[in-house]
Every structure is written in structure tokens, then in C-alpha cells.
Design a protein that fits this description.
The protein is mostly helical. The protein contains ten helices and three strands, in the order E-E-E-H-H-H-H-H-H-H-H-H-H.
């Protein structure tokens, strides 16, 4: 396997790109010990050793560290590991390892997100947040149905109070401005109209 490029990164690391399409990141001491340099040949045995001895354990450890800080969806965790320079097949192994221990649960993460943000965000906004994190739409719908217990009219009322919105003396322009503000927060037009009237 020919080393197409060796791009030096920060903290003494380098991104190694192989002719077969595999990219991975090693520290200077590691790539020097395998005599990896641009144009050199890396044997399949050496690549396999790098995967089993260095990349797989490091990727598992990184995945656990990311989950230690906060619950994540599987897709979000995959994205973070990919940003760290791990090849797809190494990420798959790390995700399987994490799943074996039950550390990764999209529904649990989504439920936690809904409970945390329901006092300040609309259902629509929470759904969009979770979609962006890679949670499946059916999981999101089920979790929102089970966990979202706040009345959106109350949330809108709090926002209107914070903005010092005066329902009694509001002009057409005031209502239109408040409508746009609330719509931008993800509230449905029906709920906003009920709140404004």
C-alpha cells in the first residue's frame, strides 16, 4: 500500500493517506516507527497492526470520552470520530463496542434533550435540533409524544412578556413583528395566532 501523502497536523500528529483510500492519523513517534513517509510502501501486515494496536483502541477510548461529556446520537458520534481522522471501518468497530455496553441510545439521548429544552423551545425547534444530531424521525416523534409536557401557549406568553408585548395596545406592525419573532422560534402559526389574540 503506497503512502500517497503525509500531512503534518498540530500536536505532533500527521494525516496519512494511502493509495487504497484509507486515511488515518498517527503521532510522529508512531509513523516514524513504521517508517511511514510520502511515496513509501506500507505492508498490509503493518497496516493491520496499526489498526489493531493503535487506531482501534484509540478510537474506542475517544468514543467513550465523547460520551462521558454528553449523550450523543450514533450519527453525531460517528461524525465526531470521523473529524478525529479515524477510518470508517475503525469507527464501525468502535460503535459496535460502545453498543455492546449499551452506552449509545438515540432514544435516551433524545428524551434527555427534550426534557432539558422543553421549557425554552418549541416542539418544532426541538425536532429540528434532534434531526441535526442524526436521530431518526420516528424516534423523535415517539420521544416528543412521551416527554414534551409543556404547554406552548405558556412558553409564548413568557416570551411575549419578556419582549414587553402589550396585547391591548399592539398595532398591526407590532403583531406582525411578534408573529415573525415567534415563528422564528419554531412555533406553529395556529399557536401563535391563538396567543396573539
Amino acid at each position: 500500500m503506497e503512502v500517497k501523502s503525509l500531512v503534518k497536523l498540530t500536536k505532533g500528529r500527521a494525516k496519512i493517506c494511502l493509495a487504497g483510500g484509507a486515511d488515518f492519523v498517527l503521532y510522529k513517534k508512531e509513523y516514524e516507527s513504521y517508517k511511514i513517509e510520502e511515496g513509501a510502501d506500507l505492508s498490509p501486515e503493518s497496516y493491520q497492526e496499526i489498526c489493531t494496536e493503535i487506531l482501534i483502541p484509540r478510537c474506542k477510548k475517544r468514543a467513550l470520552h465523547l460520551l462521558e461529556k454528553q449523550d450523543r446520537s450514533e450519527q453525531n458520534l460517528r461524525d465526531k470520530l470521523r473529524e478525529g481522522g479515524y477510518p470508517s471501518e475503525i469507527i464501525d468497530i468502535a460503535i459496535d463496542y460502545i453498543n455492546d455496553y449499551g452506552y449509545l441510545d438515540d432514544a435516551r439521548m433524545a428524551a434527555s434533550h427534550v426534557r432539558f429544552y422543553q421549557e425554552s423551545r418549541s416542539k418544532k425547534r426541538i425536532k429540528q435540533d434532534l434531526l441535526n444530531k442524526g436521530v431518526a424521525p420516528d424516534v423523535i416523534d415517539r420521544v416528543i409524544e412521551e416527554e414534551y409536557t409543556v404547554d406552548e401557549l405558556d412558553l409564548i406568553q413568557e416570551l411575549m412578556d419578556k419582549k414587553h408585548y402589550d396585547r391591548e395596545n399592539a398595532t398591526y406592525e407590532d403583531k406582525a413583528k411578534m408573529y415573525r419573532f415567534l415563528a422564528g422560534r419554531g412555533y406553529s402559526s395556529d399557536t401563535i395566532k391563538r396567543a396573539l389574540n
